[in-house]
Amino acid sequence: MAKGSLSVESTAAGIQVIVDNNPDSQSAAYMAAVSTGSRDEAPEIWGISHLLEHVVFRATDTYDSYTMAKEMEGAGGMLNAFTGKEMTAFYGITLKETAEVARRFVADIVCNPKISEDDTEMEKKIVLQEISMCENDPASYIHDLFAETVWRGHELGHNEAGTTEIVEGLTSKDLRAYYEDRYLIPNITVFASGCVDPEEAVAWAEESFDGMSGGRRNHREAPPVHESIYKHYRRKDDHCYVGMGFPTGGPADPDRFPIMMLNTILGAGSSSRLFQQVREERALVYSVYANQDMNSDGASMGAFFSSTGDNVPEAVDVVGKVFREVKDGVQEEELARAKNIVKGSLVRAYESTSNRIYRMARQRLVSGETVTLEDQLRRLDSVTTEDVVRAAEKVIRSDRLHVVMYGPNVKGMKGFSPDQIEL
Known about the structure:
This protein is α+β, with helices and mostly antiparallel strands. Helix content is 43%, strand content 20%. The chain has a six-stranded mixed beta sheet with strand order 1-2-6-3-5-4, sandwiched between helices. A five-stranded mixed beta sheet has the order 7-11-8-10-9, with helices on both faces. The protein is globular.
């Protein structure tokens, strides 16, 4: 892996510039991230962050989308963006010798988007197809339904795309007003990764974004922690998708890394407890795994599986059994394997410039920190089996168990309540 340095600087106007310099890299990446996402939207504009992300790519005051695509691809690169619950980010990655192209277009789409009526209507058609696609991908959609249930009544329960009805009603004036309210300092953070010069990155950020002053941070309130509930969302097909899990602490939780190890032991890979007991030993499911979802002030951890309806009741019982048994103890060898699973994932991700800049942005804007790979590996190594069991006892609680099923009516789940699962 290429050696490098991680630095945090600031422009004259106070924009933070986080640079992950890897001189051995052959690529360079630049990102401008805005601290606004689906949790920051009023109900009547739900989905506007995501739609705006699409529209700014249509045209700027200087370039159209074809010109940007042609020049970026000609520079051996790509221009892209993503919208999350707490951030919207725009980034370009090129060969190190054509990095100026990435810098130029990232700055242009963030600072000078056209946001015309025609472009808005065109992108609404694309986003509406994306919403339909998500709802028809049940393996992914179950995560939206689970978040909606765990964080019910709170903005963290909103998915990033919004709803068909609300997106259809958004106008270019709505997008322009949202842009002019949110895309300003102090909501802008700049990132650079790969073969990049820290001084050059700060100079670029100052020249490009320091004039975007006068903004305010979004007001956010931490989500309440709800008691257990079962929710059934119906779909016509006969296959069922189920999520079973718990709210956990956010990035500030001292047990953050033990919970990560707990999640890995439960359901990361085919050697995990869930995979072995639910699929391999009983053949109850097609797929089963554990997943974490981390936000700045709240997180969740859960098991997710898909199966035929007849198998759902027994699979739910067995997942509950796996949850319960992990509180009885964890083996040293099991924890060592879990650590290596996470380490391997981190190390592989750090071999990609695009993954590095994405992880760096997530760290800063969601977790509020900037740490090196070595720091992360040390934190993982410090977790003990006692830490994992303590985390399991704290998280895996009957009164916090949320169960969500996306599928047809299942006879054995009629009248089901999470308190039937002994934890």
